Structure formats: structure tokens, C-alpha cells
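ARCHIVE CARD
Drawer: 12
Card no.: 0347
Subject: one protein chain, sequence and derived structure
Cross-reference: see card 0346
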Amino acid sequence: MVRARSCLPDQTILDENKMNSKQKGNITELETMLAFLKQGFNVLTPYGDCERYDFVVDAHGKFYRIQSKTASTENDGASFKFSCTSSNRQDGRIVHHQYSKNEIDYFVTSFNGKCYLIPVEECGCDKRLRLLPTKNGQTRGVTWAKDYEMEEIIKNW
């Protein structure tokens, strides 16, 4: 199979300091949608910007509402986190809203070229996923990124 070349070089480095949060979020959303498409799923997008989810994945007739979130690194790359809330302005104040299972089914994020899929019920205001062991050897209460790799989660779909 011959693939068309991407319009971006393989090692494209984006200057995140020059992008606003909306631009960063758009990139994450497109990266994660593409990951589902590469797995053979159809991806549906709502018209407008009125839904709590960013897109829907059609998994063999079952629909999953997905909210994409941009992750940031922590602990010198040993872990990463993302916010599990949305925010908007109301009466001049910034108001944060948590997501519920009535609004979305999963959060998805990408980090270092991998996508991670986390059920909304497992998230609070933010979610941290660990890539490397802790310095003190603690394992209790650690949420491992490998347990949420998209390829593993979708095997149960």
C-alpha cells in the first residue's frame, strides 16, 4: 500500500509558546480523531460548538462521546496531566464545569505520539497518568499511562 506523504514533515516541532489554548486544543483534537480513524473507526463531529463532547466514535454501531484534552508534562517527563473541566465566562467571571457520564463517555489525550483513552467516571478535576516509576518506589495510588493506551481500551469495544 502506498501512502500519500503528510503535508507536515515527520519531525515538525510546533512552538507552543506562540499558540493560544484554543489552537493547542484544535491540534490535540485532530491528532486524536486521526488516531481513531487509523484504527478503522468512523469519527463524527457535531455541527457548531454546542456539545460537551468534541466528537463521536462509531465503534461497530455503538457510539462513544469523546472529549479531547491537551496534556502537559510533569515531573521531568515521568508523568503527564490534563484538565477534566471546561471553562467559560459568565457575568465577567470564569466558571469551571466538570464533565459527567451523561455528557461524555471518555476523555482522550495524546502524549509523546500515543493516545490515551480514560473513562469519564475515573476523572476528577484533572487526571495524571504516570509513565515512569516514582523516585521513592511508590506504586499504590499510581495511575499508569500504559493501562489507558487507546489500542488496549478499544479492544473491549
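Annotation on reverse: Confidence is low (pLDDT under 50) at residues 1-9. Residues 21-38 form the longest helix (18 residues).
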